[in-house]
Amino acid sequence: MSLFSTLFLKAIVFGAVGLASAAALFLLFALFKDSKEKSLW
Amino acid sequence: MPDTFLDIKVSIGLLIGFGLLWIWLGRVWGRKARDLEGFMVAGRNVGFALGAATAVATWITSNTTMLAPQFALQLGVWGMLAYCTASFGLFLFAPLARRIRALMPRGFTSVEFFRLRYGPTAHIIFLLISLFYALTWLVSMAMAAGLLLETLGGIPYHYGMTAILLICVLYTLFGGLYAVIGTDFIQSVVILIGLVVVTVAVLNHVSVDDIHTQLTESRPALLWIAFPAALMALFNNLLFGLGEVFHSNVWWSRAFAMRKNVGAKAYFTAGLLWLPIPIVAGFLGLAAPALGLEIARPDVAGPAVAAHVLGVSGAILIFVVVLSSLASSIDSLLAATADLITHDIVKAWFIPNASSATERKIAGASIVGLGLLTWLICLPNLGTLATVLFFAGPLVGSAIWPVLLGLFSERANPKAVIAALLFGSFGGLWAYMTLGWYTGALVGTAISMVICITGTLMFPASFDWARLQTTPQRKAES
User: Which among B83, B191, B279 is the top mutation candidate for probing chain A, defined by the most A β-carbons within 10 Å of its own β-carbon?
Assistant: First the structure.
């Protein structure tokens, strides 16, 4: 039970940090792509 | 724990620096917002990157960055996950955004949809619900701004609250939705990077294993999979979030503003990008005991942890994250609520033949008036006012089914919808006050659903979708 709960905590913490980092990079990449295609707004 | 986390000179410098940057950007982008379409719906041509970022930034309020650590500290792992369910509002709004854009290519507001779809009575009820929700959210954000700038940076409540409101009013006034969406992009990236940097720094100081061991020994309840209070919070948060997003003009105005075929993709992506934020922020609260921090005030657990592991730079990072999360919500509320005042009160009832130029001026005046009203309400610093936002739960919950049926079923019965809004709101408020806070949105939504579906099945109406395209704007033009 303790092992499961440690793994669960690790999975959500590291998963969330990874996803949040990817989110920032993704937004910057999407902005660059839209800007290149002159489709920002 | 120190009285404040940042020297007052540094916090004032940051406030002025970021404030001037946003106001300058508002002026620059404001050049595109000279006509009404530019000012209210950013020319209806917003692309994917800005569309997704504005949804993420608006949905990250100061509650997300400050309350998530408190949730984690008090409700444990499931407290963080409960907060994540608010992202469902963005996910599920994706198909609605596509439908809204297709049905109302020249539309401006959510209340306009209710007027055209269900008639004048539903217009009034839905307008009252929308205004109540928007104003209480705006007041709670402005009050949070005053309190947080005081706690984090030592800036007295009245100065901090006034400064944030003034900055947001100015750049929204200059640039309309262009300024709101543009600054939202910067704010969303700042928030994401700031939180990741602080969390990685915390993980360098203490491992997840240590945190788990510490929690197992001192507060095992926080690791329970079935912590009852957290499970109730999870369910209530989910429905409250759905009601907030489905009904609010903050989200509808963005659906009108995004280019065709962008809305659904942008909202779904925004849900995905927003999802990790409550966990990342909440983790700071969960790490506090393992770092040996005595947290006297759970609402500032996040800054306390950041300042502990990163010193002054951590405090600066959190200050900027909080500043961005406050501004990104306040500007959106100012713009979207001013649209309601302009389009659904002044134009609908008092100046039906107003030209676009007149409407543009009224929208500007509405932003200033709204800012002033919010400032006056926040001035006495009555803490109980901020909690009024939770009364909105039953009200917005009762709007979920009228919005869904109105968008997707031509048979939705307007009388049933009016009854659903009224009985759902009052029934939900009754439950909120007598049964418990966690039942308000649930009961409001359930009553509204039963009335909407039963009324529509027993007395189906027949609606011509083309009527949604006959906006007052088009009438005046033809």
Answer: B279
Tell me: the pLDDT tens digits for B220-258? Answer: 766 666 666 666 667 777 878 898 999 999 999 999 999
B185 touches chain A (CB under 8 A): yes
| pLDDT tens track for A7-40 | 888 999 999 999 999 999 999 999 999 999 988 8
pLDDT of amino acid B172: 97
Three-class secondary structure of residue B46 per DSSP = strand
User: How close A5 gets to chain B, by Cα (Å)?
Assistant: 7
Strands (DSSP E) found in B247-298: none
Look up residue B357 and give its amino acid.
A
- Quick one: DSSP state of residue A1? -
Interface touch B50/A41, C-beta < 8 Å: yes
- pLDDT digit string, tens, across residues B396-435: 999 999 999 999 999 999 999 999 999 999 999 999 889 8
Minimal Cβ distance to A10: which of B42, B49, B208 = B208
Written as one letter, the residue type at B320 is V
d(CA A24, CA A19): 9
Beta bridge partners of B258: B46
What residues contact residue B76 under an 8 Å CB cut-off, 6+ apart? B215, B219, B221, B222, B223, B224, B227, B230, B286
DSSP label of B258: B
Task: State how far Cα B359 lies from the chain centre.
Answer: 25
CB contact under 8 A, A23 and B178: no
With b for 16 or more beta-carbon neighbours within 10 A and e for fewer, the B29-49 pattern comes to bbebbeebbbbbbbbbbbbbb
Neighbours of B387 (CB within 10 A): 12
pLDDT score for B435: 85
Chain A neighbors of B71, CB-CB under 8 A: none
Return the closest-CA partner of residue B253 out of B187, B166, B338. B338
Interchain pair B196, A30: CB under 8 A: no
> Taking 50 as the threshold, does the pLDDT of residue B53 lie above it?
yes
The conformation of residue B345, written as its DSSP 8-state character, comes to I
A8 and chain B: CB distance < 8 Å anywhere? yes
Calpha distance A20→B216 (Å, rounded): 27
Which of B181, B197, B273, B325 would you mutate first to test chain A, the one with the most A CBs within 10 A?
B273
- For position B34, what pLDDT does the model report? 84
Return all residues near B155 (Cβ < 8 A) that are at least 6 apart: B8, B11, B12, B15, B149, B163
What's the whole-number average pLDDT of chain B? Answer: 90
Q: Do B50 and A34 touch (CB under 8 A)?
A: yes
pLDDT value of residue B476: 42
Q: Is there a contact between B35 and B356 (Cβ–Cβ < 8 Å)?
A: yes
Q: Output the six-digit token pair for B126.
A: 């839905």
